[in-house]
Design a protein that fits this description.
It is a single chain. The longest helix has 15 residues. The protein contains nine helices and 27 strands. Strands 7, 8, 10, 11, 12, 14 and 15 form a seven-stranded antiparallel beta sheet that branches. It has a six-stranded mixed beta sheet with strand order 2-3-1-4-5-6, sandwiched between helices. It has four domains: about 170 residues, Rossmann fold; about 80 residues, Translation factors (Elongation Factor Tu (Ef-tu), domain 3, Beta Barrel); about 90 residues, Translation initiation factor IF- 2, domain 3 (Rossmann fold, 3-Layer(aba) Sandwich), CATH 3.40.50; about 90 residues, Translation factors (Elongation Factor Tu (Ef-tu), domain 3), CATH 2.40.30.10. The radius of gyration is 25 Å and the shape is globular. It is an alpha+beta fold.
Length: about 475
Amino acid sequence: MNSKYRPPIVAVMGHIDHGKTTLLDRIRNAHVAQKESGGITQHISSYQTEVKLKSGKSGLITFIDTPGHAAFCAMRTRGANLTDLVVLVISATDGVMLQTKECIAQIKKANLPVIIALTKYDLETRQPEMVKGQIVEMDLTPEEYGGQVAIVPVSAKTGAGIDELLELILLNAEIMELKDESESPLEAVVVESKLDTARGPVAAVIVKKGILKLGDQIFTESISGKVKALFDSSGKSIKEAGPSTPVEILGFEKVPYVGAMITNNPVETPHDASLPITNFPINPDLPHLNIVIKADTEGTLEALKNSLSDDVNLIYTGVGPVNDNDVIAAKTSHAELFAFNVPVSKTIKNLADNEKVPIFESKIIYEIIENIQAQVLKMLDPTIEDTIVGEGTIIAEFKIEKVRIAGIKITKGEMTKGDSVHLMREGKIIKNTQIEGIRQGKDIVEKIKVGHDCGMTFRPYIDFKINDVIIAYKNSK
């Protein structure tokens, strides 16, 4: 590269329905250079575009489209570790949502600068002041309130505010003085990967340092390869890629992990990627669901893994079509097999039927997650009403030395340290765990009775909320 500075890498985050993808499409269609027309490869969630603004300013920007569903929390983390700046998309009509809060937590954790794009600003139902108030509550102070967070009203529908947003991105990049490190040893990060039936292992990466060249020997963890082909974000074949450039690589021997670092030198391997993955130790006294997952890409596989509850014991995962080894792994572990957007041949289905291994198939990630949750609920004892020993309502939450504690009012019976409990939300049992500890004021107690309040911790951890109901019960067996 000729410039001493590299283009900024911008992660676009936000709630799934707040117009993130529409905004990115508008930017690409309105500002992409003619030479880049042709679209990006379907599974690459990043692209680089040359923007030309009405002010006369121009420059390259690399965008990473980070998915908005809560299941993709790990993918957001990966994006935040790679990026220089975040554009946080918030609907001017809906305001801050749960997934918005998750994004803000990731932004703060990575200590990244953020620009807020207030989308759907063309709608009469917009409530900008409400949204700004919510943002302040999340410890992000807008510039107009004396803070450092810029808020740009935009409309992907009309194009209003898009130039202002892009100009702000370029201005931030100038201030950050992002040094071009083309002369450094190669470092590139895998942002997506998959097994292509025609082309073999494919990795979409963004170069951080050095230059990735056609013919390079490349390494990541226990996987190596030689760059047989390079494609830019428009699908054009290229010979090399410098810092901030998103490219697709052909030539790995196996599918690399999402988030893995690619170098020109062998890397120490922390684990064998070919081995089955097992969850943290499961309490044998509590019911749990054994599962095997096969998915189309490492990215979606990672998302599924990070959506699992404490009730799930992950036996094995893999990328690519379901095969006989997957069925046998499920059978020997008494597990159920979940296939996301991958082929399951008639031969494999017959084998699964013979071995009595259930296979759940879907091309929608929500369906897989909901199906797993449904299987977990089936394990819960449907007659716990007959064996209830105590009930309580969560009325508060607080932290002591980073430990999250539920403030509970006991409404029935009594609860004892070690009791098995169910977490009920809106009339439905959604998790099961055990009481790890009980506190009354500063005292640690073994038991708490009806009419009293206490602080309670659980193991395995459960993501409780205010107004959730805790039900302590004993097995009638």
